[in-house]
Amino acid sequence: MIVFEIAAAALAVAAVIYLVVALVAPERF
């Protein structure tokens, strides 16, 4: 369904942003 595709895309984007933040600002973790 479209809903699951949107949810999967949102999770993928959130994961990428989280990884970028973890790499740029490791002192926060």
Structure description:
There is one protein chain. Helix content is 79%, strand content 0%. It has one helix at 2-24. The N and C termini lie far apart (35 Å).
- The helicity comes to over 70%
Q: Give the oligomer, counting copies of the same chain as homo and different chains as hetero.
A: single chain
What's the β-strand tally? 0
Alpha-beta classification = mainly alpha
What is the count of helical runs? 1
What composes the largest sheet? none
What is the CA-CA span between the terminal residues? Answer: 35 Å
Order of helices and strands: H
- Round the mean pLDDT to the nearest integer and report it: 91
The Cα radius of gyration reads 12 Å
| C-alpha geometry | rod-shaped
Low-confidence stretches: none
User: Per DSSP, what share of the residues sits in E-state strands of 2 or more residues?
Assistant: under 5%
Kindly give the count of domains. Answer: 1
Can you give keywords for this protein?
single chain, 29 residues, mainly alpha
Secondary-structure blueprint of this entry?
Blueprint: H1 2-24
What's this entry about, in short?
With 29 residues, the chain is mostly helical. The protein has one helix at residues 2-24.
